[in-house]
């Protein structure tokens, strides 16, 4: 594309936070935006905020966000003259970019040929070698026979990786530490690559243990100018998925940094790259060497940290470059200020093997004073159909230590209800000594948490304060809680007038809260007592004096099914405590509890991928009965008890609701 390309209305072929981010960029330049959405996203914020919006299909991505024909028809129907793909979905699909241009629309991204060339890991590494960019030793030949691959594996030596040529996100990748395992690794990598990418081609690459992931942001225009906008470190990863990113990359020798940046520009120039792109490297601190991994031909999830330290709006420049404008700055104009960190916020439970969380967000109280790119708000529904990342928290400070501190403060003030998030886990990563001392690497999570990670819980003092917050919340406005909490509380088992009892949902004995005059007292089941003078819950602040010392903490009280949830800011971060009142206890007893031991139910909405048993099968407790797909992840659902399968309520391909019954067992003690 050369010369000026005029457009006034941009269709955004994406959803969630990145759709809102692109909408902001359009508004900045006076452009109209068109949102395309699925049935599941009909009420999403990005739809309401667009200038125009069109439903393009069902909730499944294949019916909507991957439906090229529906997207192009939406562009025609709304008069859009340009398309921005965001990231994920069709953003690195060369066929989609070509189809957009064939329809007479402007594709806001690189040339289709550049997307295709960098989309093949084998071709991308060949291009990198030709541009003088270091690549890891390995085999990337066209001969894909078992004999040739095994021959090359023996020559390469262990450890090495088998990787899908068209892969990404860790799919189609296998680590081989023993040559005897190579045949199985090659076969399984091929099968996964064929299933995920419709391309079974693989290549072999030396494995660099304890390596870091460092990437360079590039920006190229249609006039041959390519600049780098600095580097980022994305080494904190789980299953090759990034968790926390920072800019610039810390603890990197300046000579290595300069070579990485220059190599990224050379590669982009060599392929005639336009728009924003990212060249990713593996950096081996032990050898002091770096190696080309791949080039992402799109806007990255982590682009905000680069924007924070450079002051350059990447989406704005994607739009300007697509219009044919030359870059209005030189490499010398790009200045770097301070340090930025991005935390990916996902609806998942890290303490339960990162189980996806779905449902309606009943409370959304983000911190003030920091950048938050998000696709949700209070009332939004987190669906099982899409990726679990729902927001990104971005902080900027003069140095890395300050950025870490600022991120922790922001996370400690973040309260969300209705759907569980990974904030406590991300906080644990951010404050881990390995991260602070630069000992982290791409496969280092088992070293950071060798016994697994456990979510912090409120200590007895914080539990007592949570009960007080609920006590004050339930009091009528303007009345003292120990006088006006209702007759059932006046006769509660606390033992004296004005007292109320609150049960943590996992415990049998209550916390007793009572008051006299200006002092509110909470007594734990073990007898520990905390007294708070002038206790008050004003808005979202719990305040008072303990032993004469004033305190004030963020506190949110929200109703949940069968109990109350109190979000309380503590020294360990934002904690969530589930409490029942006496009424809740009575209702719990009346309904006979919340679980059925012999019934396997869906922990979340999802699609049934596999049913591994048949009626009459005898199973042990913990055996996998059903595999459920939710948020692009497979969840193995185990048998709650040992016994015999008596009923199967689902089949592969079924879409099931949260808590839907899946398998009925006759427990072993009955058989």
TrEMBL record:
**SUPFAM superfamilies (alphabetical):** Glutathione synthetase ATP-binding domain-like, PreATP-grasp domain, Rudiment single hybrid motif, Single hybrid motif
Q: Name one Pfam family in it.
A: Biotin_carb_N
Q: Which UniProt keywords apply?
A: ATP-binding, Biotin, Ligase, Nucleotide-binding
What is its cofactor?
Answer: biotin
User: What InterPro entries does the annotation carry?
Assistant: ATP-grasp (IPR011761), BC-like_N (IPR005481), Biotin_BS (IPR001882), Biotin_carboxylase_complex (IPR050856), Biotin_carboxylation_dom (IPR011764), Biotin_COase_C (IPR005482), Biotin_lipoyl (IPR000089), CPAse_ATP-bd (IPR005479)
**GO MF assignments:** ATP binding; ligase activity; metal ion binding
Q: What domain of life is recorded for the organism? A: Bacteria
Region forming the signal peptide? none
Per UniProt, residues of the Biotin carboxylation domain are: 6-450
Record domain ATP-grasp: where: 125-323
Which residue ranges does the record assign to the Lipoyl-binding domain?
Answer: 591-666
Q: Membrane: is it a keyword of this entry?
A: no
Name it: Biotin/lipoyl-binding protein
Organism encoding this protein: Thalassobius vesicularis
